[in-house]
Amino acid sequence: MTMPGSTPDVAPAGHPYRVEIEAERQGSYEVVSLVRSLTPDECLVPGYYRHPETQEGFIGRRKADSAELDPLPPASHVARTDQELLGKIFRRNIAYGTLTRHGTLFVGFSRDQGTLRAMLVSMLGVEGGA
Hints:
This protein has about 130 residues and is an alpha+beta fold. It is built from 5 helices and 3 strands, in the order βααααββα. Helix content is about 25%, strand content about 20%. Strands 1-3-2 form a 3-stranded antiparallel β-sheet.
């Protein structure tokens, strides 16, 4: 839907990046998270290293092709941020930094503050889980 005085949507209907705005709900909520990657020295701390399969279990996706694991570990990031269960958000990750200091900038938008809160609570395992 295009609101009066706004530019029309660029992505066609059904496109994964299309964002529709309801005229009667003209607000949005944003969450921003800057996640710094560990330095090579920090990665050498005894006990830090995790085997790639263990890392995949934490996230819930294979590193090689980003496909969801089947079965999906219940405490994985993917399981804890299930948009079918918790609500839809528009989200983007953007890499930042230099060769020695870098990470990812996460930005998420939702028309409902409760959806973002539910995802954060779920990710932290506040209401059950590890």
